[in-house]
Amino acid sequence: MSSAEVVLGFLEEAEAWRLRSPQFPSKVGGKPAWLSQKGLPSVSGLECETCRQPMVFLLQLYAPISGQETCFHRTLFLFCCRTPECYTRNNSSCMRVFRSQLPRRNEFYDYNPPPEDEPPSGPEEDPAVLPVSGVKLCWVCGCPGNKACSRCHSVTYCGKQHQTLHWKHSHKVECCSQVRLDGGRPLLFPERELVTEPEEPQEEDDPNEAEGGEESSSQKSEDGPCIADTLAEADLEEMAMHETEDNEMFQRFKKKIAPEPHQVVRYSRGGSPLWVSSQHIPSDEDIPACTCGAKRSFEFQVMPQLLNSLRVDSTGASIDWGTLAIYTCSASCNHDDQCCSEFIWKQDFSSDQHTQIEHT
Question: What SS3 class is residue 285?
Answer without folding.
Answer: helix
